[in-house]
Write a structure and sequence with these properties.
It contains four helices and five strands, in the order ααααβββββ. The protein is an alpha+beta fold.
């Protein structure tokens, strides 16, 4: 059981544990620590007399390097998604037709979106009017009264 005394092997085992944990709980962060642990393990195997403090400093340095490389990589090559508006609730609302619940007067009122209400800016409209969401500003929705189907544009 001489291998139990090899710090380099413990670092490599730690790298495997971190990599497997990354697979179980994906977050794209532990993999960089796993790479740093693997590099530290390899260095420790080549330099077995490296003290624990030196190993920890090396691990910290390699962790910083791998995280910075990963950060730059994901900035330059963003992960493609099948739903680019996944975390952009307002973008998901644009184009939806909603009902005015508090009359829009003076350009401001409230609309019903799903089971909630949002402040809205737009042309004056009485309660019950159907409006379309065209954007957002200052935490409120921008709405317009959609043109009637078959109506001619006014000039």
């Amino acid at each position: 059981m001489d291998w139990l005394n090899e710090a380099g092997l413990w670092w490599l085992i730690g790298a495997v544990v971190l990599a497997v944990t990354e697979l179980l709980v994906p977050g794209v962060f532990l993999i960089f620590l796993a790479i740093a642990a693997a590099v530290t393990g390899a260095i420790t195997l080549f330099f077995p007399d490296l003290p624990a403090g030196g190993q920890l400093i090396g691990f910290a340095a390699w962790s910083a390097v791998t995280v910075l490389i990963g950060k730059r990589w994901y900035r330059d090559y963003p992960v493609e998604t099948s739903d680019p508006m996944l975390n952009d609730r307002v973008a998901r609302l644009i184009g939806q037709t909603v009902t005015v619940v508090s009359p829009i007067t003076g350009g401001q009122g409230r609309v019903k979106v799903g089971d909630g209400e949002w402040s809205a800016f737009g042309d004056d409209a009485p309660a019950g009017t159907m409006v379309r969401i065209i954007g957002a500003r200052d935490g409120a929705l921008l709405v317009e009264i959609p043109p009637m189907i078959g109506s001619e544009p006014q000039s």
